[in-house]
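Q: I'm teaching a short session on how sequence maps to structure, and I want students to see two examples side by side rather than one. Could you give me a first protein with its sequence written out and its structure tokens following it? Keep the formatting plain so it prints cleanly on a handout.
A: Of course. Example one:
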Amino acid sequence: MIETPRLQLIPCTPAHFEAALAGRHVLAAVLGVAAAPGWAGSPEAEAVLAPGYQHLRRQPTLQGWWIYLLVHRSEQQLIGLAGFKGRPDEQGSVEIGYSLMEAYRGQGLATEATQALVDFAFGHAQVQRVTALTLPTHSASCRVLEKCGLQFVGPSLDPNGGEVWEWARQRPAGASAAGPLLTAAAALLVFLSACGESKAPATDAPAPPAAVATAAIDPGKALFEQNCVLCHGPDGKRGLNGAHDLTKSNLNQMGRVYMVTNGLGKMPGFKGQLTPEQIEQVAAYSLTLK
């Protein structure tokens, strides 16, 4: 996940795609946020979900270089889509794009999301050039790209044969491959380590996660072993029958409760088989599989 001061850019996993295709209420429940009608920003943006899902299933390595869900952090509202149109090509070029709900335009959020994508891209050594396409007219999207350092290259033809304007930004001289953006918590951890905080006496250190068993974890583990291990494996990574890798899932407790309750795709729902409390316990345990 990429975080900015006001946004979360959540990489759209197969589970997210399946939820989105099932309906905005399903996706909202999985993410634990609100999703208003038209959350994708435009009918055209929403129309890419189905082919985007199929393409990701065929090429799982696209994850991270594909579609991201835009969540407004303070409002906990799904407000659009952004992302890349594939991994860097042989010349180290990647193309970016975004779609934002009309109610959230004109607030600098598109610029914030676009800059986050540009920074993410140049955080990888193989990326030498970031590009984007716009309609052939001066628009707000053009201004967003200019603010993020992309320059007008010239007219071009998109794959569908229509005229577009191409924009590009070359890798800044001396830019280092820093990888994905640090969240505030991760940055704080690095800062504390640099200041010697990690040298505190062992008696002051928190107990290891294994020793901090909550009331939900132990029964949740037993229920997980009884109902989920066949497909997910004891470590959450097995992936049988299309089961997703739980160690890489971005779903929070609420989203996992929804998935266990109702199922999605090949995953069966356990509503009626497990009590709501047991489902909460399974979801809580699955969050420990990292």
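Q: Perfect. Now a second example for contrast.
A: Example two:
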Amino acid sequence: MRQIENDRLYLSSDPYITVDEETNKWQTHLDYQDYLYRSVSNRIPFLIYEEELKRINDFIVFLLEKTNEETEEQINAHANLEPDWTWVGTAEIEMTQESVKSTWSFNRNKTLYLTAVTLLNSFLESCLNDLVKLFISEERIRAKRMANLEKYVSIINKFLKSNLSMPEYLKESRKLRNEFVHDQLSSSEVGEETVRYTIDAIVELLYDIEQEFIDKEIIGR
């Protein structure tokens, strides 16, 4: 089975089906064990969240791959230039290559990754909002005065009589998201691992919530 690193992004694993020769039953397998959310109950709305997160992840990976390809193509294009020793020398070619690297590094670390973090946080907020509306009450959303994610988790906890809490990394991820959308970001760049850790934290919370819904028999398994 393919091994994946815990701080990198990968395309979602495609399931495939085989038949168990002993039991003659269908069995679903994955090409490799990815890091994405897989609904335990296979019930709506959790199946929808599974598919939505898969699409978001694969879109982010697609953009990252295209960015890396474009960076390499532009660097290689300048590497093939021949110095004419009049206007263009070896130093000028090397400076241009470094400029290309710097530009695309900025695009990736200051725009792509932060846009991905923003999209993922919006996805989670949408999921929690959806759960409250479906199973509890839309009025409860308007009644609470706190940041949205904490508000939804608090409402769900009260409904389920549970003690769910947001993974610690989500707090850091949301801080980055807020700084980015309000143009208050510090000078430090964001890496691929930030997006991956955000996904991991979202997956952890969705699993915890779904398990509580199963344990309290709100949904079946």
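Q: What should students look for in example two?
A: Point them to this: The chain has one domain: 40-215. Also worth mentioning: The beta strands are 15-19, 26-30.
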